[in-house]
Amino acid sequence: MEQQSGTKRPWEERVAETGARLRDEFQEELRRVVRFIDDEVVPEVRRNGSTALRSAASRLQQLAEHMDDSKRSNPGSETSESGNSRESKGETR
């Protein structure tokens, strides 16, 4: 985009300056985000991560028990991924 003499037109200079300013602002904002994650998010996850995992494990245990209870109360209603019951395919457990 440079002219033969090697100088930029005024609008090209403004575009280049604006691009450089935006790049610098973006880099600074990215540094702030990384700092926030390092200073705020990571320590919080480390403090409460095990609590969240225990809560998720408890909920998964409840879900597994519910699924087991459903199988026991409706043994013929178990379906495969295609939606057909095992019994209709001649399969048994």
Structure description:
The chain is mainly alpha-helical and 93 residues long. It has a domain at 10-71. The chain is built from one helix and no strands. It has one helix at residues 10-73. Residues 1-24, 61-93 are annotated as: Disordered. Residues 9-24, 84-93 have a biased composition (Basic and acidic residues).
SS strand fraction? under 5%
Which word captures the global form?
elongated
Q: What is the straight-line distance between the termini?
A: 73 Å
Structural class: mainly alpha
Query: Mean pLDDT across all residues, rounded?
Result: 81
Helix count from the secondary structure assignment: 1
Number of strands: 0
Biggest sheet details? none
Instruction: Note poorly predicted spans.
Output: 85-89
Report the radius of gyration as a whole number of Å: 30 Å
Overall helicity? 55-70%
Q: Which sequence of SSEs, written as H and E, runs from N to C?
A: H
Give the assembly state of these chains: single chain
Biased composition (Polar residues): 73-83
Region (Disordered): 1-24, 61-93
Biased composition (Basic and acidic residues): 9-24, 84-93
